[in-house]
Design brief:
The chain is α/β, with parallel strands linked by helices and 232 residues long. The chain has helices spanning 49-56, 79-89, 105-110, 120-133, 149-161, 179-196, 207-210; strands spanning 5-18, 21-34, 38-42, 64-69, 72-73, 90-94, 167-171, 199-204, 215-220, 223-229.
Length: 232
Amino acid sequence: MENSKIISIEGLKKTFSTTGGKFTALNGINLEFGKGEFTGVVGPSGSGKTTLLNIIGSLDSPSEGKAIVLGKSIGELNVKQSAMLRRSQLGFIFQSYNLLPVYTVFENVEFPLLLLNMNDGQRKKMVLDSLEWLGLTDKIKSMPSQLSGGECQRVAIARAMVKKPEIVLADEPTANLDAANSHHILKSMVQLNKEFNTTFIFATHDDKVIGYLHRKISLVDGKVAKDEITNN
């Protein structure tokens, strides 16, 4: 696994305005992530996990400090530049799957590729490859309503991986799954991490996910309480 740094976070703060004043979600975060990591940001609800992932994924921007992702400073990107970074180099997996209900499995996985400049043949091959990686070739024409929770999450992973992104950000990806499906999903992600050297960063408090992590970053009240390499 390579150790080249692809994410650098320095003095990161994020505050939100509330009816009672201001809430500090992240308070002086300093972190680095290398190519090919399989890392989790763990902690209780409200600790800042999702906020950190959203900033790394250019869905939000810092209030103070810097987040440099693949050489780009998130706080300095305009809307178009942020969208281009997400479109070309980042993949997202959410706990609620976020599949488009009126699209087939094939169409859901193809959707991110429609935003990129490639022909029909290229798109079809990439979608079929992605579905094959996740064992979903027999579900190509199925609608999300016809799938189990585990199958929906596998489709969501196929959609995240279809463009072979540098980084995949997974926010509580097993929250709606039973233990058997959770382990199946996590083993799939471990394999994809090894095969493509994709960097995976999870936000989670699920012990099942934590058991697969190679690095665990614990957040408490918006600060890094512990950053440790695991034996997994």
